[in-house]
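Lecture notes, continued. The same structure-token format from the folding unit now serves as the input rather than the output. Read the line below as a description of shape only.
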């Protein structure tokens, strides 16, 4: 269902704003994000999106070191 702006008009860009995906996350990751969401009052899926967007903006690269 398309998002509506105030005044009842459909937002023509709503489908381009976010895309639904399915990912598998560890239970510990989900628990951490849900506790952070409760602390901040921000839904955990929004926190995931904010973190990943920050990674994109900062052009972060994954650093993995095997011990």
């Amino acid at each position: 269902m398309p998002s509506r702006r105030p005044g009842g008009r459909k937002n023509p860009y709503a489908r381009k704003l976010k895309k639904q995906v399915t990912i598998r996350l560890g239970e510990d990751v989900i628990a951490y994000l849900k506790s952070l969401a409760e602390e901040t009052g921000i839904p955990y899926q929004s926190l995931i999106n904010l973190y990943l967007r920050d990674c994109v903006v900062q052009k972060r690269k994954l650093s993995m070191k095997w011990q």
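Point for the exam: Residues 3 and 58 are 29 Å apart (CA to CA).
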